[in-house]
Amino acid sequence: MFFYETRINVFLRGVVVLIGITALALCIFWLPGIASRDAAAHPETDYLQYPFLVCAYVFSIPFFVALYQAFKLLSYIDRNKAFSELSVRALSYIKYSTITISILIVLGILFVAIFIDDDVAGFISLGLMCTFASSVIAAFAVVLQKILQDALDIKSENDLTV
């Protein structure tokens, strides 16, 4: 059973690393190209190219923080430290990162809705779906954090009575 759990954990850590590498490659290679193509296609809003890139890179910071914390959490689980204060702290960072991502998406939606005159329904609906997904992850992190904290509290009470 232990070997099976270790293989799953290694697979999950590999998935987290693959997601991180893909997101980093998109930030480095894909985003600047998208911004320059959009600036060339819409010369009236080409001044938004650099603010878009800055916002995209600021947006990526909490995403990478959450990925790193997920990797650390999987490492804690692999070292049999799932029920530790370290795991609770990692879940807390994941929670705050996903809440930050949701807030940044909502601010982006508001900016686009206020300042862009084109048809932005697709952008707004995509933003709302991403906000919903991020909120679900935050809620899941809160539930897990509460469960782990309760387990740690019970463990500490049992340690005191023994």
Task: Describe the protein's architecture and organization.
With about 160 residues, the protein is mainly α. The chain has helices spanning about 1-40, 50-80, 85-115, 120-160. It has one domain. Helix 1 runs antiparallel to helix 2 and helix 2 packs antiparallel against helix 3 (about 85-115). It is elongated and about 70 Å long.
pLDDT averaged over residues: 89
Give the structural class. mainly alpha
SSE topology string: HHHH
- Percentage of residues in helical conformation: over 70%
Sheet with the most strands, sense and barrel status: none
Write the topology of this structure.
Elements (H helix, E strand, L loop, with lengths): L1 H40 L7 H30 L6 H31 L5 H41 L1
Features:
elongated; mainly alpha; 4 helices; 162 residues
Quick overview of this protein structure:
The protein is an all-alpha fold and 162 residues long. It is 88% helix and 0% strand. The chain has one domain.
